[in-house]
What we know:
Protein name: Glutathione S-transferase omega1
Number of strands: 4
Low-confidence stretches: 241-254
Radius of gyration: 18 Å
CATH architecture of the largest domain: Up-down Bundle
CATH class of the largest domain: Mainly Alpha
Structural class: alpha+beta
Oligomer: single chain
InterPro entries: Glutathione-S-Trfase_C-like, Glutathione-S-Trfase_C_sf, Glutathione_S-Trfase, Glutathione_S-Trfase_N, GST_omega, GST_Omega/HSP26, Thioredoxin-like_sf
Distance between the termini: 23 Å
Order of helices and strands: EHEEEHHHHHHHH
Mean pLDDT: 94
Domain GST N-terminal: 17-96
Shape: globular
Number of domains: 2
Family: Belongs to the GST superfamily. Omega family.
Pfam families: GST_C_2 (PF13410), GST_N_2 (PF13409)
CATH topology of the largest domain: Glutathione S-transferase Yfyf (Class Pi), Chain A, domain 2
Amino acid sequence: MSEKHLKAGDALPSFNGKLRLFAMRFCPYAERSVLVLNAKGLEYDLVFVNLDHKPEWLFNFSPKGTVPALEYEQGKAIFDSNIINVYLDEKYPDKPLQASDPLRRAQDKLIVENFAAAQSAYYTAAFNAQALQPSHIENYHKGLEGLQKELEVRGTKFLHGDEAGWVDLTIWPFLERFLALPLMGKAEFAIDQSKYALLTTYIEAMKNVPAVKLYCLAPETHAKFTESRAKGDPDYNMLDTSAVCCMRPRKKKE
Length: 254
């Protein structure tokens, strides 16, 4: 599988009958869908695209030219990570990732919703530092405190339970990137173990989830890409094989 991000003028790779996800290697929203595909043990292909010089054919799968987009049959696709991930969990129910209880599913969605302000603060800190305000830092830490409180109340290893589920895989891509902020001089965004003991334990547990280990990148790698993007010249193809945990798709168990 190539790590190269295809751009305008590049040909669409041939379809070989597998699920196919159009993504960008450093996009947290695309990562959400990769993690769900991994966790479900599904066989799939990944096609990375350059979001600054989008291939013309990307719009056939995602009308707005956004990622992720999932080609579930040749020439047929759905887009948006939340829509894709719920579809995958319902289409392939062997290993459910959402809670069986409707109330718990609603509560999980509220966790994700309440975490959105922390995500927004991350984007400002990472890509628009001159606009950073004290309110961004406050919202960021409120988001972390909210996650820690949920872990305390639930009393489980993961938010989903004893194993990581939809809610964990939805939150994780941003936590993975949060760890890069101190490396970029944003010390006020550090996740201090003395303050966030339960959350840091959770983060370490998430790093060892098989679905995450297949795709995770080190904070140093995220910092390097983020700095290139903040300068207006994102280095989409910066990775070599040694920088990636693993990018091979997992095969669905028979």
